[in-house]
């Protein structure tokens, strides 16, 4: 359902414990956008993966292994995160919060069991609030 409301130019900040399902969420949303789910994997060691075969291109970042925010900035993160034609997912976004666009969706994932998760999604601006409202309407339908 999240893929139904996401739009180009949006950043989704993902936070949660190691193994909480951040990459699985990106895989599911990317598949719903038409990307090959077999190509979606954690970019822990390469920092960024790009998926361009779906209806909206996706940039997928993992900042877990970065030594500091300057390392994220040095790959051109600001340019990627502000690209109006793509959706960006940033795993471990709290590590680079200074570079995350002010208006973004924030997703906190908590493990509630070995096979269950709790997702808390909040908006941080007018555009993300509009998307969150659309998501709530879909969930209530």
Q: What secondary-structure arrangement, pairings included, does this model have?
A:
Blueprint: H1 2-5, E1 11-16, H2 22-32, E2 48-51, E3 58-62, H3 69-74, H4 77-81, E4 87-91, E5 105-111, E6 117-123, H5 126-140
Parallel strand pairs: 1-4, 1-5, 3-4
Antiparallel strand pairs: 2-3, 5-6
Give an overview in words.
Helix content is 29%, strand content 24%. It is built from five helices and six strands. It has helices spanning 2-5, 22-32, 69-74, 77-81, 126-140, and strands at 11-16, 48-51, 58-62, 87-91, 105-111, 117-123. The chain has a six-stranded mixed beta sheet with strand order 2-3-4-1-5-6. A hairpin with a 6-residue loop joins strand 2 and strand 3. It starts with a helix and ends with a helix. The mean pLDDT is 93.
CATH topology: Rossmann fold
So, CATH architecture?
3-Layer(aba) Sandwich
The CATH superfamily appears as P-loop containing nucleotide triphosphate hydrolases
Chain oligomer state? single chain
Low-confidence stretches: none
Helical segment tally?
Answer: 5
At the first level of CATH, the class is: Alpha Beta
- By helix and strand content, what is the structural category? alpha/beta
Lateral strand order in the biggest sheet: 2-3-4-1-5-6
Question: Roughly how many Å is the radius of gyration?
Answer: 14 Å
Nearest-integer average pLDDT: 93
Distance between the termini: 11 Å
Helix content: 25-40%
Per DSSP E runs of 2 or more residues, the count of β-strands stands at 6
Sheet of most strands: 6 strands, mixed
Integer tally of domains: 1
Rough outline: globular
């Amino acid at each position: 359902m999240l893929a139904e409301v996401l739009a180009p130019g949006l950043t989704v900040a993902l936070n949660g414990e190691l193994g909480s399902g951040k990459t699985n969420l990106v895989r599911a949303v990317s598949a719903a956008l038409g990307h090959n789910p077999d190509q979606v994997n954690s970019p822990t060691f390469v920092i960024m993966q790009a998926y361009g075969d779906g209806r909206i291109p996706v940039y997928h970042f993992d900042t877990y292994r970065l030594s500091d925010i300057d390392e994220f900035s040095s790959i051109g993160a600001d340019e990627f995160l502000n690209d109006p034609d793509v959706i960006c997912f940033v795993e471990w976004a709290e590590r680079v919060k200074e570079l995350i666009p002010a208006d973004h969706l924030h997703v906190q994932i908590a493990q509630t069991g070995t096979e269950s998760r709790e997702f808390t999604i909040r908006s941080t601006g007018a555009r993300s609030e509009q998307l969150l409202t659309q998501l709530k309407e879909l969930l209530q339908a």
